[in-house]
Design brief:
alpha+beta; 58% helix; three-stranded mixed beta sheet; YefM-like fold; elongated; 78 residues; 2 domains
Length: 78
């Protein structure tokens, strides 16, 4: 992930947004310290979903069912 300073981001925002839309991600720094991440919306959606409590709960239940022998791996079904 590339780094970009806040001043460079301000002066080149349009270019940076175009690069992000094309798939590049940035760590935004302020005074040399990482403060934020700018990433394509698709990656952000995946991140939000992966950390959503409802999704985490479903994954936990699925793992528990598998451990107890109540489900099968997809490779055994397909």
């Amino acid at each position: 992930m590339a780094e970009i300073g806040i001043k460079e981001l301000k002066s080149g925002a349009s270019r940076v947004v175009d690069e992000v839309a094309a798939g590049r991600s940035y760590v935004i720094t302020k005074r040399g310290q990482p403060t934020a991440v700018l990433m394509p919306v698709e990656e952000a959606e995946d991140l939000v979903l992966a950390n959503a409590e409802e999704f985490i709960s479903v994954r936990r239940r699925a793992r528990e069912a598998y451990r107890r022998g109540r489900s099968k791996p997809l490779r055994d079904i397909a």
